[in-house]
Amino acid sequence: MNTSEQSKTPVGVVGVGWVGLVTAACFAELGHPVVACDVVQEKVDSLNRGEITIHEPGLAELLAKNKERLEFTTEINEVLSRTKLLFVCVDTPPTYSGDADLSRVRAVVADLKADGDHVLIMKSTVPAGTGETIRRDLPGMAYVSCPEFLKEGTAVKDFLNPDRVVVGAAPEDRTAADEVASLYSSLGGEIVMTEVSSAEMIKLASNAYLATRISFINEIANVCEEVGADVGEVARGMGLDERIGPHFLRPGIGFGGSCFPKDVNALKLLAGNSGYHFQLLNSVIEVNELQKRRVVSKLTKHLGSLVGRRVALLGLAFKPDTDDMREASSLVLSARLRGEGAEVVAFDPVAMDQARSLLPGVEMRDTALAALEGSDAAVLVTEWPEFRELDWAGAATLMRRPLIIDGRNFLDANVVHGAGFTYEGIGRPGVGADTE
Ligand code: UGA
């Protein structure tokens, strides 16, 4: 370790889930000694052995490369005695009411003493107003809201190349806010210095807006199907307007994951609890739910009744490059297909272990071709790159009926049709004898 590394501020991380682990690994990569704690002993033990349990590109390599600067423990006191800056990264899953469950955040706060020495930096996504409550409970401890914007699958890259870093603090915590901002100053993104409730709202509003764009383009895709337009062309033409931009206009079979569904609902409820009816978000959520189910009618259009038909799902994770199954569209889709009497088989390159217990009655196959063999139709659920490279001509001969519904508009319709398939995407013209 050289002198400049030795002088880097130590960083504490509380909670080593997706966000916490990436935060720990990336601060270590930036040269900071990191002490991270979690209540789950098994997780801490495996991290100390250098093993990680989540699939996130580049993360294992970063942890291995920086292992001398990283320490994992179950003792929060270890973190408190060795670090001043505490990044709280515990999860805030939805409760039955749909509001964010803050029990883990409260448990952390209960362990902290307002010693005037530590800075609590909130990375967990919390309802706007949470910071104010915590500041009341911990007078004397500096509080900074620093929401995380990383995406699963590109989390390391997102952390190290942020579009912006949001740092929210009350005027009396300005020194602490500057310290937090300086941790990110070498990364290049604009640093947005603001107060706590605005920082909290920036996070919720960003996720809700991105989800709104997806539901919007999904509805446009559905209209394109009615009028014979191609949503890919429509999105391209729209995205060239710099007020609109090209991102997050990919239609599909709905958004999933641990964040959008939870955060959109949490913002809707936060507004409702404060007396405001957030009309638009109701539609965003409803459109997303219906979008997951539209595949069923696309299948029945070709196959008639699905009773006894075998449908192969290609991909199960909520998006590629992750094994995360939280709120994955495959969960709703497979249940709907089974409800229609279909037999469902599936393949995912990394998520099958996570998926098995969540998808009772769905038969997992070892390869995509094995899932397609003997099936009456396939649905591409997750756009894993390897599906583009599949031997589609070989696949066509293995299937009982070569029909594919491309739920992510990921495949080249002409290539797949040339291989013998009837092809249907989302909001784009189908190709094949019975789609014309
Ligand atoms: C999302 C946000 O993009 C991050 O900025 C945020 O930090 C994170 O939530 C969070 O709050 O923790 P993530 O859920 O990892 O990140 O994944 P995304 O890449 O945003 O995808 C979410 C879902 O939207 C996926 O199911 C994806 O397939 C879908 N999607 C995305 C579309 O259907 N169309 C698009 O154009 C883009």
Describe it:
The protein is an alpha/beta fold and 436 residues long. The protein folds into two domains: 8-194, 3-Layer(aba) Sandwich (Rossmann fold), CATH 3.40.50; 196-436, 3-Layer(aba) Sandwich (Rossmann fold), CATH 3.40.50.720. The chain has 19 helices and 14 strands. It has helices at residues 3-6, 18-29, 41-48, 59-65, 76-82, 103-111, 130-137, 155-160, 174-184, 196-227, 231-239, 260-273, 279-303, 329-339, 352-356, 368-372, 385-388, 392-398, 413-418, and strands at residues 11-14, 34-37, 70-73, 85-88, 119-122, 142-145, 164-169, 190-194, 310-314, 343-347, 363-364, 377-380, 403-406, 422-424. The strands form two sheets. An eight-stranded mixed beta sheet has the order 3-2-1-4-5-6-7-8, with helices on both faces. It has a six-stranded parallel beta sheet with strand order 11-10-9-12-13-14. Helix 10 (196-227) runs parallel beside helix 13 (279-303) and helix 12 (260-273) packs antiparallel against helix 13 (279-303). It starts with a helix and ends in a 12-residue tail after the last strand. The model has no long low-confidence stretch (mean pLDDT 94). The structure holds uridine-5'-diphosphate-glucuronic acid. Uridine-5'-diphosphate-glucuronic acid binds at residues 125, 148-152, 207, 210, 214, 248-250, 252, 255-257, 259-260, 263, 318-319.
